[in-house]
Structures are given as C-alpha cells and as structure tokens.
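Re: zinc ion structure - here you go.
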Amino acid sequence: MSDVNAVPEIDELIAQSLRIGADPRLVQGAGGNLSLKHDGVMWIKASGTRLGEAADRPIFVPMGIETTRAAVLETEDLVPYVLTELAAPGLRPSIETALHVLLPHRVVFHAHATGAIAAGLTAQSAARIRDLPGADVAVVPYAKPGIELARAVFAELGDDVDPERPLVLLLRNHGVVVGAADGEAAGALLDSVERFLRTETAPEAAATAPAPGAPVPAGDPVLLHPAGTVGPRAAEVLTGGAFTPDAAVFLGPQPFGREGAWDESPCVVGADGSVRARGGLGADEVEIAISLVDVARQVGGDEPTSSLTERDVHALLNWEAEKWRQNLKR
Ligand SMILES: [Zn+2]
C-alpha cells in the first residue's frame, strides 16, 4: 500500500476532479464523487469536499477495498474502514462509498449531470440511454443514496459485472454513474453520456444573478433567469416538488413555487418564465437551483415526471449522513 502521491494516475484523477468540479452542469456544491482502486485501496472523494478543491487540499480518502466491501451493505458508518495511516485527517468517506466499492471498475465517477437527471425523470426518456454505444447500460429506479442505492443498482445489474466493459448507470431522480478502466476513459464516458442525453443549452443567467459560488444577498428576491427561460412544461416539472436528493436536502420538499409562493418555496417561477430566488439563499442552494432549472428545460414529452415522495424527502432530511454534508455547505 502506498500513500496518495505514489498512486499511479492520481494526477489524472485530480485533473478530472477539477474539470468536472468546474462544470455546474455536471456537479453542484459538494455533489458528485470520483474513486480510483489501486493495490487493495480505494481512494474516494470525502463527503462534503468539493471536486474543484482537488488541487488545493486532499479530498480523497483511502479505504481498504476488501474490508469496506464486506461492511458496506451492513453499516453506513464507514469511518472504521478508512486507512488512517494513509489518510489526511478529518475526512469522512462519501455517502456513495458503497456503490463505488462494490462496482468492480478501477475508476468510478458519479455526477449530478443535468442531461442524465432530465432523462431520468420519465421512463420513456430514461430508456434512451439504452442506445448509447460503447458501454453496458442500466436504468436504476430512485433509491435513497448510500446502502439503498447500492442495493438498487445491483438489483438491476446482477452480480456478474464485467470490470473490463465500460458501464453507465442512469440513476433516476439523481444522476449518473460511469465505470471504466482509467480516469481518462471515465471522463470521456461521462462526457459522451451528457452529449447523448442533453436536449438544451444551459439556461441564460440574469444580470442580477449571483456570481458563481456566491449567495443571494440578504433582502429582496433576485432574478436568477430572465423571462422566457422556463416554458410551460419546465414550469410544471420545477413546481412539481423536489425531484433529486440535493433538491430536497438543500431547497426543501418544494424548491420551486409559482409566483407569490415564497412561504413554501425558496425559488419561484414567474408567469413570464423567469426564475427568482429568495434573499439570503446560500451559494450551494443557488447552484443547485440553477441546475434544476437546467434539468427542467431538458424534459420533453408529456409523460408525468417522477418526484421524490414525502417519505423519500423525510428519509433524506432526517439522515445523519446528510446532516453532516449540510454542515459543510457554503
Ligand atoms: Zn449523488
């Protein structure tokens, strides 16, 4: 076993972290995670750290692969499986460690990519991923992140997953996972999934929208997106309740309301298709809200979209692992 600097390809993993972390259409806030397995150790992004920080401080936690694999479907307390002799202090493994360690691929990337989330909101559009060339593909129904998501993934995949074949998992109401032989291939696969699924460009920011990484100043609501950004279908999707875990955890059960619904929702969609955010909304919340607008604009057809149930939202908001992540937000 060797420390992180001696791991071949760690530079590639850091480069991919920076690239993905800089693209708000791929990850928002502390979302998304990357892992690399080498020499019996899995290096996985720590919970609450940002991919964009990868050049500035350690964000990868070393876990013993065999011990972690044996434990992940039994417990969500994975701190005992961190290889402390190799680890930077104070890092706690990602909520999605179970999925990363159980997949046999050397490199696994998970992103909250807007094209994949949009496709996953209806069964019809989710099925489009099956036509993606060059990878094994599975569509996974929504499950709470962590153990339940890992179980849902393997219920779709079965036990016989070939680590030599690139893999794409479309996680409905959540995002995408890719597995590949190395970091470069995983990055290229993630990009190809998004190129394949995206149906719209990113929404235009209003002049009054906070700069990337900045919160909404306290006071009156501000315009995030100008009139005409959100059409009737996207408005219906946005105001239909939280449709991803991040939406629920950061923006509550009803992230977007119609004009005047400030009591219930931190963001509102105007009758003219504009989007406003409440004064004082945090930087991560703003980034997630903008990504949800991006997602909603990419939902086509007229099939009803899937949102999280009240029970799903309750389970997320009362989950200790998410409370930890909330404490680390900007
Ligand atoms: Zn996720």
